[in-house]
Write a structure and sequence with these properties.
- This protein is α+β, with helices and mostly antiparallel strands.
- The protein has three helices and eight strands.
- The strands form two sheets. Strands 1-2-3-4-5 form a five-stranded antiparallel beta sheet, with no helix packed on it. It has a three-stranded antiparallel beta sheet with strand order 6-7-8.
- Strand 7 and strand 8 form a beta hairpin.
- Helix 1 packs antiparallel against helix 2.
- The two termini are 28 Å apart.
- The relative contact order is 0.14.
Length: 168
């Protein structure tokens, strides 16, 4: 799962780190681009040494670099990190966006509640933290099953949260 608790459950302060799933690891990225470059070169074999090669080459290189740019952009857009710290007195959530911007939320731990919106949120089983006069999302980039598991873990980590009834 693309989240983990960084401190043991016995500690007074616990941290939960969440990040979007990266389906293409760095090795797969290199292999994909290398294989694509090799396959793009196959149609060029019959035209080696002819003037036609120089007419096709720019378009094939443009396609290869366009694919590299799209993969790099996708990887950059998914560099999100959410850190939830649950202390004795306070709960804090900090989100680090791909552009380096930070968003934060704080609340007295006693008033912190975990909520799940089965159908009302932008995604099914939308998990939120409530308290301090605000309601903030957590883990919206996770899959539906991961959000359900996250809700269960947060409910046990923050006592006093009532489990919502399933949707009708």
């Amino acid at each position: 799962m693309p989240y983990n608790w960084t401190r043991p459950k016995q500690d007074a302060e616990r941290e939960l780190h969440l990040w979007p799933h990266q389906s293409l690891p760095p090795q797969g990225y290199v292999r994909f681009l290398g294989l694509t470059a090799a396959l793009i070169c196959v149609p060029l074999i019959p035209v080696l040494g002819s003037f036609l090669l120089w007419g096709l080459l720019p378009f094939l290189l443009l396609a290869l670099f366009g694919m590299k740019w799209a993969l790099d952009r996708n990887r950059h857009d998914h560099q999100i990190l959410e850190v939830l710290t649950i202390g004795k007195e306070e709960a804090r959530l900090e989100r680090i966006n791909p552009d380096g911007g930070r968003q934060s939320w704080r609340c007295n731990r006693y008033w912190t509640r975990v909520g799940m919106h089965h159908r009302d949120g932008p995604v099914p089983h939308y998990v939120t933290l409530q308290g301090g006069g605000r309601e903030v999302e957590i883990g919206a980039f996770l899959s539906e099953e991961e959000r359900i598991a996250l809700f269960d873990e947060l409910s046990s980590a923050i006592p006093g949260t009532e489990v919502p009834l399933p949707p009708r």
